[in-house]
Amino acid sequence: MSWLGQALVVALLFGMAVAVHEIGHFIAARWCGLVVDAFSIGFGPALWKKRYREVEYRLGSIPLGGYVILPQLDPDAMAGVQGQAGDGSNAPRTLPPVAPWKKILVSISGALGNLLFAVVLAWIVYLSGRPTMVSEASSVVGWVDTNSVAYARGLRPGDTILAVNGERVRSWQEFLQLAALSDEVTLRISSAESVLSEVRVPTVRNEFDFHAVEGVQEGMPCRIGIVEPGSAADRAGLKSGDLIKAVDGITVVGRGQLIELIGQREGVETQILVQRGGELVQATVVPRMDPVAGQVRIGIVFDAMVMTPWAQIRHDASGIVRMLRALTSRKEARKAAQGMGGPISILATFWLYVQAGVLMALGFSRFLNVNLAILNLLPIPVLDGGHVLFALWEAVARRPPPARVVNALVRAFAALLIGAMLLLSYKDVIRWSRIGRQWSAMMSESRATQTNALAAPPEVSR
């Protein structure tokens, strides 16, 4: 895909995440009978606008959000950000009051729009049979660099990580997230022989500014997706769908481990045990050096693992909720804040996933929509959750909160939010200028190896 094509896909997916949120508010407001002055995608001066059936539709010059002007819900607190009412007049209007339950419904409908869109994206990824940004829940270690601290302290392929710093772990993503919150972690592990033990290892900051345990990779089933014609695997009779279980009698628990085992056997007859359907099949392959990839390979590309739609949504939501918990913890807040990104990070990450494949980008878009839904429901003035809070106050007190107080709170938190976005954007520029150079080098290597990025990342093809 060309540079322009990638930019268009990024703009489309990001714009859709904003649009479905605002459409959710708009539909609920119209259904509840609220007055709608304007519907806008983007902030700032309007590049285009058109009035239709008492609503002014706008396209803002700053494509980093959107809004629906609802004078009965938010009379003037956000006027400075949103612009004047759709009729262009500041004259006071007398509008009928709105029941608190209607305000709550309209407020949460933006998040519901994002969640529904996320479910649609999850189904597209699932039905495609292609990879998504998440893998099946597993905390099995697939590979440990023999030169790493983790290996020196006893962590081995096949070990299952049960807990990090005493907190239970059920998936590799949970392990990564908990490791990112500490300079050193204590891992409770179960070995392949079911022996329980604890390993204390340090974490190091990676190129994405996250802390991680160095030299450790996830245990992912080595199921063959593509057998390259004329390759050693093809000549040995290996087939797409085969699950590699062992190499020369060594049980294979992860792709990194398989890559290492194959790399050690250049030109040597190697016995590969695979599961094909309900039977085990033995094959003999002779790994060869691939001069283009610069690696010893047998000529396969791993199959992708796709979670069910519900598992994808649950995976995204649990990660976001855990990060919010970390931000409220004095012990974990600093590390959690280091890993946060702003608008530039979102757009740059979109760009990277589009380069890896459109379906990978859809997976990230799903995650972003779940993220927007949860964050917008936080009980903070200026967010949708703040409007829910004000409506609940009105329902209990039998009167709306004082307009002066609401306006002051919304404007104060809007200023804080804008300040936070500017700070995060500054950090993003520094971070992504470095990551961009590294990613460009990796993508160049990927194209040189001529591997299918949608089937598997280049470093896991053998």
In short:
With 462 residues, the protein is an alpha+beta fold.
User: In DSSP terms, counting alpha (H) and pi (I) runs of 4 or more, how many helices?
Assistant: 13
Count of β-strands: 18
Share of residues in helices: 40-55%
Q: Could you give a short account of the major beta sheet?
A: 4 strands, antiparallel
Q: Compute the CA-based radius of gyration.
A: 26 Å
How confident is the prediction overall: mean pLDDT?
Answer: 81
* Low-confidence sequence ranges: 80-90, 132-136, 445-462
Give the N-to-C terminal Cα separation: 25 Å
Please list the strands of the largest sheet in the order they lie side by side: 5-4-6-7
Q: What is the approximate shape?
A: elongated
**β-sheet strand percentage:** 15-25%
Category from helices, strands and their pairing: alpha+beta
Explained architecture:
The chain has 13 helices and 18 strands. With 462 residues, it is of the alpha+beta class. Among the domains are: 3-130 and 364-423, no CATH class; 224-302, Pdz3 Domain (Roll). The strands form seven sheets. It has a four-stranded antiparallel beta sheet with strand order 5-4-6-7, covered by helices on one side. A four-stranded antiparallel beta sheet has the order 13-12-14-15. Helix 1 (3-31) packs parallel to helix 11 and helix 10 runs parallel beside helix 13 (403-449). The radius of gyration is 26 Å and the shape is elongated. The two termini are 25 Å apart. 37% of the residues are buried. The model is unreliable at 80-90, 132-136 and 445-462 (pLDDT under 50).
